[in-house]
Amino acid sequence: MLLMECVLHLYVSTVELSLDSPLNDRKKKDAVKPSLSAPAASVASSSSKAPSKTLEELEEEESEDKFDLNISVTNPEKVGDGMNAYMAYKVSTQTSLTMFRSKTFTVRRRFSDFLGLYEKLSEKHSQNGYIVPPPPEKSILGMTKVKVGKEDPSSAEFVERRRAALERYLQRVVSHPSLLQDPDVREFLEKEELPRAVSTQALSGAGFLKMLNKATDAVSKMTIKMNEQDVWFDEKIQDVENEEQHMRKLHVMVESLVNHRKELSGNTAVFAKSVAMLGSSEDNTALSRALSQLAEVEDRIEQLHQEQASNDFFTFSELLADYIRLLGAVKGCFDQRMKAWQRWQDAENMLQKKREAEAKLLWANKPDKLQQAKDEIAEWEAKVTQYEREFERISATVRKEVIRFDKEKARDFKRQIVKYLESLLNSQQQLIKYWEAFLPEAKAIA
Amino acid sequence: MEVSSAEAALSVSASSIRITDVTQDGDVLTFAIASQKLNSSAGVCVFRIYEDFDWLQQSLFSQENLPGLQGIIFPPLPSKALPSQSNTQTKALKQLGFLALGQDWQSYCKALEFYLQQVAAHPTLCKCKALDSFLINSESPGKQRGRKGIFNRLSQAVEEMRKESHKDVDNFFQNERNKNTNLAALSKVATEKLLDVVMTEQKLALACGHFATSLHLCVNQDDAAAVAFSKVCLKLSDVIEAVNRNFEKVASNDLSTLGLGLDLESRYQEAEKVWECVLMIACKLIELETVKKGTEKAKASKREVMEAFQKAVEKEFNLISSVAKQEIERFHSSRVNVLKNFLIGWCELQLNTAKEFAELYSQHLEACRNMYSE
């Protein structure tokens, strides 16, 4: 039966052929990555309000700084057209504090107003050693897209990101007991119209770097250890620096996490489509149905991934970015303290010089210039005293500020972890629902 | 043709066949195959390399005295794995697809195990002596090679036949062929897309791992505030580590069930494609034979012989056709059943994982809230 043998040999060869052929059309990606739709404003702001409100209530019961003030930044709206357009945000305040005119009020502010607020606060309070929270960064690219009117998800994402950042910024400002007392803050929250802020040089990355270098230089200049307090400051600035480095590393990792999640979301969507197509081509009714259901489940899972990516981003990525900037502000305080110390030291040196000059005059027996010398000595003695007192005052402030900052940092991070866990738990519970619904469909296949 | 007594039934139970271990020595993988003897509590264990599987497949194809063999859809054998160090994961993925993933060749072993079970469960193929010998002889079967010479020429003929549209013997086969072509393409795509998903899940797990480890950098015991913050960082590290494990689990679930299932489905569809080709060729050849003989009908004296021959050919053709139809039924119900089991298995695994991690996150949340109120 040669015929049969031929046929079989044919079979063997073709089987080897086709089964050996690798998945060779896996050349990248006909996969269309769906663009990340802007997380609904409600996700970020409501989730930052709803669970954390109860946490805030707990906080208030514990903390000494008891204040009842809630701020939200909402409703970003584009005003104007072309390159002169800008985004206006609604700033709403709810409070029972008597220093405000009413219990609830709303104003409209634009980004430069926020920057203006920062400029004013920084000017007044930085030199005294206060940690003034830095505002969100300027973004020329982001804003240009918005101005030009590009209605794509990335510009919606940018606007949402900025809105959330502005909200956090204000919340940090008002949770600072000293800054809250500043009339500029009150004006910002209450006044209908604000004069347009000019020369708003938001601290760019470069600006912060300068501050960084200055602080470390100043520390190295300080050769005389006066007392143990200085040791504390020395160690602290080192800690701050280390922490900033660590946070930068962590930030990079979280960004990577967010990107992978977005990628997973995209891949899941593509997979869902391929399963749907398989299902619609399938003859067996129950299997076809099961596959269609599976495609739906995968679609819902894709949604979960998207939400989780947004969650990762807002919970951690932005948190870390905020703290990297805040640590820069902390370094700024130390820098101010160094300036004060330098001023004091310079005054001491000057005083020394004046005394030496007096001694010279006495020795050279020039009585007429003596009075001037004595006056100058008195002047510089006064300055020395003043600068010493200022230095001690600023040291005390910085110390207090750093302690407060550390506490708030721990609280902030804790709060975010809880928020994150809540969302993780929620996702899992959703997944459980989806799988429980799918199981009977799979079992029904016959 | 009578079935010879040599074709006794298989001496072990098909469902008991397991690949229990795999060892790697340089380039060569050795598989330990265990099975349970029928009518006895004795177990058998043998050691085989890939070439032995290949030998088995060849033996199944070249069985003699098995009528209607061409009608059988042979279970597909996975390609040979090349485990050498120079083989990067990309190369491995290209070659084996899903089977390249998973630790220690687990997926690959599962696929081979499945192949053996399918062969053993096939009503006709299980009778092959080679199978029994493969499963119970302590000595490995001889390696038969060198038959590939003629295959290349013949395989070219197959390719050409595939391209041309030949009228099939029957509408039934034509429909089946169309559906099969479609499904083959779709299941291949679905497999590839699932592979993409699994790769990304693994990347995510890795990224979480890095993040979790890096959080340890923030530990600082200088003062009370630093200690408090360190605690927070370590807590976050634990949470992210949990997320890491979550993703690893999900990826592994995908791999071990659905991934495997889709991969198998894909390869089965490919096998059916080939089988249909073979069927076409067999029928074509029979037609040709008939025609050839027909022209020789001129010699009237041989008419009886001719007619007898024609009848024999027709009988053979009908046999193939009926076996083929049966095979298709069997193929589809088996295939649907296989997919069903994988889908159920996958769903249950993912459900359990989701429950496990919901519990874990819940515990972490509780711990965090308590830490918070300290």
From TrEMBL, chain A:
Predominant cellular place of this UniProt entry's protein: other
GO terms for cellular component: cytosol; early endosome membrane; Golgi apparatus; lamellipodium
Membrane topology: Peripheral membrane protein
Family indicated by similarity: Belongs to the sorting nexin family.
Classification via SMART domains: PX
Membrane-spanning intervals of the chain: none
Keyword Signal listed: no
The name this protein goes by in its record: Sorting nexin-1
GO MF assignments: phosphatidylinositol binding
InterPro entries per the UniProt record, alphabetical: AH/BAR_dom_sf (IPR027267), PX_dom (IPR001683), PX_dom_sf (IPR036871), PX_SNX1 (IPR034901), Vps5_C (IPR015404)
Region annotated Disordered, chain positions: 28-66
Composition bias, Low complexity: 33-53
TrEMBL record, chain B:
Residue stretches making up the PX domain: 1-142
Gene Ontology molecular function, alphabetical: phosphatidylinositol binding
InterPro entries: PX_dom, Vps5_C
Cross-referenced Pfam families: PX, Vps5
Organism superkingdom: Eukaryota
UniProt protein name: Sorting nexin-5
